[in-house]
């Protein structure tokens, strides 16, 4: 019989119970025993849920209190040494200090886990890092699972992935030099697991889906030969992409099973199947762990049947990757459109789909006749649904003439047209869009949403806020003003809620990091803009001041990247549809006299495919979508874009190709290091490198700002340099926001007079 299993389950809980436990504990509202007891109850519930659905074997070790990569560091006894903690005796409080920092140490750095929106805590490797197996926490979880009658499959992050995902500290050295010592520790971990009566151990090596250097690839065989000394059966899990190019290597490894992501990379089977080894399990990832669409049961079962015909019980079935990246339970959604709801599957539904696949495979199609019919009905209904396919949207895209994504004139001519009316001083000052989101603002938005505040009252509250923000910016003497974004609770949700083709869930939360979750919108149908979304607010703001007010929009790539996207259309097409909807807004803003418009694209970099060979295609359509979103504006209209918290070095040509008149970027955290790339690349348009870190409540000293601006002037000519913070100010309080901006303006003015006398 084929096994069904999961690589991991969402640990946050159906109602985000873990989030609330953690936050109560951090606020000292509950004690440690309550936190740990609550977390235990939750993971037990999740195991029982899997058992109830008929899963043969359950992952253990996926239910972290904060992050599974931090847990892996504890497990191998290699937590960052600057804290001076001992992994073997690590207390709960010390664990959270690693994750969240303390008075003397900043937290471990956080980075996105591959191309997901999950952030892991980055290991810190020193040339002389030592390891020590610390299996106790994992053994305790295994014992808990076994006490519930669960067949436990401990999950470990593979040694090569763990090393790769860490950063060298102290000196530059080859992380692979740590491998021998790390392997000895993994051998000890496996020996400890072997005493715990488990058969299988899942070892995740998602780095196999990246472009790995030859020496890292060559390390796989000796690594898994060393681990194969254990009598335990190892299931090597790959996911997030194709590992086809490594098929000969992987099928020869001395592991008992291999998991392949057949949702992201179905074609990779061709590389594996013809020479599938007699002695290996193939765990086929047939159900999408990264998206929310219901599985086409018929197609998945057909695929399972084909595989089963050659593999027999060597075939296991699973979701494509851990369900950590999927929301919890669709059944909780009471407000979703019923048709749309019938097209979706969250983690609990995906587990059920797995159960149905197994039944269909072993007891025949007739045993799941009704479920197959329901799945087929949903598929057909979705294919034909009028709200999904709109002729007007399709026609508009098809009718776009070539060159629609190009501005009328090249940047130098546009710059002249813009300068002649904007009449900005040298080093113009601006901000990135949002101003402090005070309790009052949030209360007004919430009351309006609940229907307790009527439209007129809400409008009045927001207008008051806009006026306040305009007056404060005037008093600070900022050159290009913003309206403050008080009406937005989230930069994607605000637009998604007003666009056709988007839906919102109540409980579709996915963990982003620690206790933080995000609830991405669902793009289910063709996207169009039924009415203006921001024009009234921007026009009101502009009516209050003679200074230019910058319109503020979220770009198509970012809206796409931070949503669950329909899987019946290429992402590039969905992105173009969003681009045209944003373009409608851009043209309306321009018509209404808003002639400086910022289109935020902070997510461009994170959309990059895992393998370099796919980068150009992505950058080409992403760039086209951005340009489409600001197409057809007059030369004199100034288009800004904003990006943050990413490295741009390797994609600068693509960023320049966006052809925004002005780009504002985050650079202050790296002391303008990021800007060096822009300088050596000779970025052609205007740039506003962020001069202070808006994530810190610290008010920057004027001499620091002076130094940063001097550095910026080293690489960017003064005529093309803007001065601004590194991101929006919505998380800050007013006193610090004002003080920091005042410092920024003071420094800029001094620098202007200095430049004037030296010219
Ligand atoms: N305009 C947005 C703001 O200021 C940009 C946010 C972002 O870059 N993530 O809040
Ligand atoms: Zn930003």
Question: Would you tell me the structural class of the helices and strands?
Answer: alpha/beta
Query: What is the strand tally?
Result: 22
Shape: globular
The average pLDDT score comes to: 96
The CATH topology of the domain at 414-492 and 538-758 turns out to be TIM Barrel
**How far is the first residue's CA from the last residue's CA?**
81 Å
Main β-sheet, spatial strand arrangement: 1-5-7-8-9-10-11
Tell me about the biggest sheet? Answer: 7 strands, parallel
Give a description of the structure.
The protein has 759 residues and is of the alpha/beta class. The chain has a domain at 414-492 and 538-758: TIM Barrel (Alpha-Beta Barrel). The protein is built from 28 helices and 22 strands. It has a seven-stranded parallel sheet with strand order 1-5-7-8-9-10-11. Strands 12-17-19-20-21-22 form a six-stranded parallel sheet. α12 packs across α14 (347-363). The longest helix is centred in the last third of the chain and has 25 residues, at 734-758. The radius of gyration is 27 Å and the shape is globular. Residues 432-434, 485, 491, 552, 600, 602, 642, 644, 727-728, 730 line the site of glutamine.
């Amino acid at each position: 019989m084929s096994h069904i299993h999961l690589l991991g389950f969402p640990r946050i809980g159906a109602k985000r119970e873990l989030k609330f436990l953690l936050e109560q504990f951090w606020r000292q509202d509950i004690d440690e025993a309550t936190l740990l007891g609550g977390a235990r109850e939750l993971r037990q519930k999740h195991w029982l849920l899997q058992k109830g659905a008929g899963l043969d074997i359950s992952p253990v070790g996926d239910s972290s209190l904060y992050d599974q990569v931090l847990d892996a560091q504890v497990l191998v006894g290699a937590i960052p040494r600057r804290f001076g903690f001992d992994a073997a005796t690590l207390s709960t409080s010390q664990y959270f200090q690693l994750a969240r920092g303390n008075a003397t140490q900043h937290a471990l750095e956080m980075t996105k886990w591959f191309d997901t929106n999950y952030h892991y805590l980055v290991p810190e490797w020193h040339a002389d890092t030592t390891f020590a197996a610390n299996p106790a926490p994992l053994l305790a979880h295994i014992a808990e699972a076994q006490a519930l009658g669960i067949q436990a499959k401990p999950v470990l992050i593979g040694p090569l992935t763990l090393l790769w995902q860490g950063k060298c500290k102290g000196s530059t050295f080859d992380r692979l030099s740590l491998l021998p010592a790390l392997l000895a520790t993994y051998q000890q971990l496996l020996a400890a697991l072997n005493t715990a009566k488990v058969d299988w151990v899942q070892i995740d090596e998602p780095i196999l889906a990246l472009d790995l250097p030859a020496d890292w690839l060559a390390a796989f065989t000796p690594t898994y030969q060393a681990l194969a000394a254990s009598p335990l059966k190892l299931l090597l899990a790959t996911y997030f992409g194709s590992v086809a190019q490594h098929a000969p290597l992987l099928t020869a490894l001395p592991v008992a099973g291999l998991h392949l992501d057949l949702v992201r990379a179905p074609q990779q089977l061709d590389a594996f199947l013809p020479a599938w080894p007699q002695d290996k399990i193939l765990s086929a990832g047939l159900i999408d762990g990264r998206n929310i669409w219901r599985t086409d049961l018929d197609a998945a079962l057909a695929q399972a049947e084909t595989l089963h015909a050659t593999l027999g019980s060597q075939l296991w079935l699973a979701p494509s990757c851990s369900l950590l990246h999927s929301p919890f339970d669709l059944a909780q959604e009471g407000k979703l459109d019923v048709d749309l709801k019938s097209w979706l599957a969250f983690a609990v539904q995906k587990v059920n789909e797995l159960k149905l696949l197994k039944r269909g495979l072993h007891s025949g199609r007739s045993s799941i006749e009704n479920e197959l019919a329901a799945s087929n009905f949903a598929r057909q209904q979705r294919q034909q649904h009028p709200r999904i396919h709109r002729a007007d949207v399709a026609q508009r895209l098809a009718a776009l003439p070539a060159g629609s994504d190009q501005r009328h004139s090249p940047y130098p001519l546009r710059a002249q047209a813009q300068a002649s009316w904007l009449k900005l001083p040298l080093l113009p000052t601006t901000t990135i869009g949002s101003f402090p989101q005070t309790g009052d603002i949030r209360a007004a938005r919430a009351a309006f949403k609940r229907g307790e505040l009527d439209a007129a009252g809400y409008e009045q509250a927001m207008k008051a806020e806009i006026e306040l923000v305009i007056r404060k910016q005037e008093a600070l003497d900022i050159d290009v003003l913003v309206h403050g974004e008080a009406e937005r609770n989230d930069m994607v949700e605000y637009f998604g809620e007003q666009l056709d083709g988007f839906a919102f869930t109540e409980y579709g939360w996915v963990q982003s990091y620690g206790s933080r979750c995000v609830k991405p919108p669902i793009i289910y149908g063709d996207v169009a803009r039924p009415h203006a979304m921001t024009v009234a607010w921007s026009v009101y703001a502009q009516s209050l001041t003679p200074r230019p007010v910058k319109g503020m929009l979220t770009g198509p790539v970012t809206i796409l990247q931070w949503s669950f996207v329909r899987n019946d259309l290429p992402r590039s097409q969905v992105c173009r549809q969003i681009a045209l909807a944003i373009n409608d807004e851009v043209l309306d803003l321009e018509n209404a006299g808003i002639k400086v418009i910022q289109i935020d694209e902070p997510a461009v970099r994170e959309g990059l495919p895992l393998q370099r060979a796919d980068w150009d295609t992505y950058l080409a359509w992403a760039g086209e979508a951005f340009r489409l979103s600001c197409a057809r504006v007059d030369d004199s209209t100034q288009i800004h874009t904003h990006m943050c918290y990413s490295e741009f070095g390797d994609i600068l040509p693509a960023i320049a190709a966006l052809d925004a008149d002005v780009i504002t970027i985050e650079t202050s955290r790296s002391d303008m290091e990021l800007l060096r790339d822009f300088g050596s690349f000779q970025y052609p348009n205007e740039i506003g490198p962020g001069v202070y870190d808006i994530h810190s409540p610290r008010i920057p000293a004027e001499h620091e700002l002076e130094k940063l601006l001097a550095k910026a002037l080293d690489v960017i000519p003064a005529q093309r340099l803007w001065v601004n913070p590194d991101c929006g100010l919505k998380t800050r309080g007013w006193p610090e926001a004002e003080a920091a901006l005042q410092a920024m303006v003071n420094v800029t003015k001094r620098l202007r007079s200095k430049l004037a006398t030296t010219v």
